């Protein structure tokens, strides 16, 4: 079923400032916190690589004054001041940049450090996209916060058009049981609430660990053997296919091994909550079609 988002929450509150009135920007972030800005943000700090990428996609790249490690797309993001990593950012460095908006990541940033930023009086918007529609929603929200609605809305519309095209192409195809491996030691996967699961569903796949309660749980090999996926997909950490994808070949009782359905999707195209995830979806969908073709 296609989930629908309401239009981005935006309230224009007239605040008296001397003889003139000005519009205040008020939005709700992805954890339900209200973020208020007196005017569109002109100095933004990003606390996750995917957030950096979405800011550029929303037409607000010129407002970026600070990013975290691995903020490498688009290439110009590499020239922005680094404030640490998404799990350990430098609060003093962020404060020195005098941002009028910080955009964080719910699943990646330590909650204690986020609260310390708020204690410094900095507006913080928390992002957490759990569906493809949520990626479009984030683009629109950043457009509101940065005053780049025209570019952001155009990007969101194009993203949804691409998503809908893939849905029309693959939604009615025979389902394929999929195990998505995000790491090898410890062995980790995703549950049904993860954005990658939405990609799997878009392609007509079924995440065999859909019902687990943790977003990115650790599991045992025995659990994978019991689930017996028809396809195993892994991304690793870079552009190269991870060697540990081939370690599954020792378990020749698995359908995925018997049919050589061990597939790779570059992590930047599937593990970042950005418009490029649909490029990863294109590849994922083709892999699942290959698996369908290999059925006896």
TrEMBL record:
<dbReference type="InterPro" id="IPR050902">
    <property type="entry name" value="ABC_Transporter_SBP"/>
</dbReference>
<dbReference type="Pfam" id="PF01497">
    <property type="entry name" value="Peripla_BP_2"/>
</dbReference>
<dbReference type="InterPro" id="IPR054828">
    <property type="entry name" value="Vit_B12_bind_prot"/>
</dbReference>
<feature type="signal peptide">
    <location>
        <begin position="1"/>
        <end position="23"/>
    </location>
</feature>
<dbReference type="GO" id="GO:0071281">
    <property type="term" value="P:cellular response to iron ion"/>
</dbReference>
<keyword id="KW-0732">Signal</keyword>
<protein>
    <submittedName>
        <fullName>Cobalamin-binding protein</fullName>
    </submittedName>
</protein>
<feature type="domain" description="Fe/B12 periplasmic-binding">
    <location>
        <begin position="43"/>
        <end position="292"/>
    </location>
</feature>
<dbReference type="InterPro" id="IPR002491">
    <property type="entry name" value="ABC_transptr_periplasmic_BD"/>
</dbReference>
């Amino acid at each position: 079923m296609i989930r629908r988002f309401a239009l981005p929450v935006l309230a224009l509150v007239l605040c008296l400032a001397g003889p003139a009135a000005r519009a205040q920007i008020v939005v709700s972030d992805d954890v339900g916190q209200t973020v208020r800005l007196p005017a569109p943000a002109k100095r933004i700090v990003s606390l996750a690589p995917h957030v950096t990428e979405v800011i550029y996609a929303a037409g607000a790249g010129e407002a970026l004054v600070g990013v975290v490690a691995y903020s490498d797309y688009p290439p110009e993001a590499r020239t922005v001041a680094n404030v640490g990593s998404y799990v350990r950012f430098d609060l003093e460095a962020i404060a020195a940049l005098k941002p009028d908006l910080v955009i964080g990541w719910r699943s990646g940033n330590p909650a204690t450090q986020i609260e310390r930023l708020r204690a410094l009086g900095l507006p913080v918007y928390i992002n957490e996209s759990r569906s493809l529609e949520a990626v479009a929603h984030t683009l629109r929200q950043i457009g509101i916060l940065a005053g780049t609605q025209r570019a952001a809305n155009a990007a969101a519309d194009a993203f949804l058009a691409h998503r809908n095209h893939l849905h029309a192409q693959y939604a009615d195809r025979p389902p394929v049981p999929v195990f998505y491996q995000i790491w090898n030691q410890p062995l980790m996967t995703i549950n049904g609430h993860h954005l990658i699961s939405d990609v799997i569903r878009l392609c007509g796949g079924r995440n065999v660990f859909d019902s687990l309660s943790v977003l990115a749980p650790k599991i045992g090999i025995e659990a994978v053997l019991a689930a017996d996926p028809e396809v195993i997909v892994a991304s690793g950490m870079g552009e190269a296919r991870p060697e540990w994808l081939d370690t599954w070949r020792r378990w020749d009782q698995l359908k995925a091994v018997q049919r050589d359905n061990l597939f790779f999707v570059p992590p930047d195209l599937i593990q970042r909550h950005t418009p490029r995830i649909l490029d990863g979806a294109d590849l994922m969908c083709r892999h699942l079609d290959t698996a369908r073709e290999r059925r006896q």
